Amino acid sequence: xxxxxxxxxxxxxxxxxxxxxxxxxxxxxxxxxxxxxxxxxxxxxxxxxxxxxxxxxxxxxxxxxxxxxxxxxxxxxxxxxxxxxxxxxxxxxxxxxxxxxxxxxxxxxxxxxxxxxxxxxxxxxxxxxxxxxxxxxxxxxxxxxxxxxxxxxxxxxxxxxxxxxxxxxxxxxxxxxxxxxxxxxxxxxxxx
Length: 192
Hints:
Elements: E1 2-7, H1 14-23, E2 28-30, H2 31-41, H3 43-53, E3 58-59, E4 62-63, H4 65-72, H5 76-99, E5 105-109, E6 124-129, H6 132-143, H7 147-155, H8 160-165, E7 169-172, H9 179-190
Parallel strand pairs: 1-5, 1-6, 2-5, 6-7
Antiparallel strand pairs: 3-4
Helix pairs in contact: 2-3, 2-5, 3-5
C-alpha cells in the first residue's frame, strides 16, 4: 500500500483535492475531521485534555472550542501540550483506518503534515498551493473571520516554500490550472 500525504497551507484547497480523489474512488483520511471526532469521543483524550486545560474544556459533554482556543492561541507551549495529546491519538486512528483499506493507494489529508511529524506515515507527499491573496479570501469567506485572523493562522504553519522542498508533487490551485488534470497525472505516476 502506498500512503500519500496531502498538505498545504490554510485555504490552499486540500479538501477540494481530497473530494476529487474520493470521486475517483480513492480512500482519503481527513485528519482534521477525525481529530475533532477523537476529541469528542475518545475518553482517554478527553480526560487528558481536561487534566491539561481544565474541566471547562468540556461543557455538557461537548468540546468547549472557545475555552481551548483561548488556552492555546498565541501560546506555543500550550499548543504543543494540546498536540502531544491529540496527534498520537490521530496517528493511531489513521493507522487502524489504513489497515482496513483495500485500495493500493490511500491518502492522508492534513494541513500540518510536516509540522506534526505525520509525514513519517507517508511514502509520497502532494502539496496543494495557491497564491496568498486567494487563500486569504477563501478562508475569510469560509470561516467568517478577518484577514488578520487568517494571517495569524498562516504564521503558525510552515511556508509553502518549506513544504515544497519536502513534497513529491505540487498541485497549483489558482483557478487557472486544471485540478483534474494535475490530479490524474499524479495518480498515473503513483499507480505505474
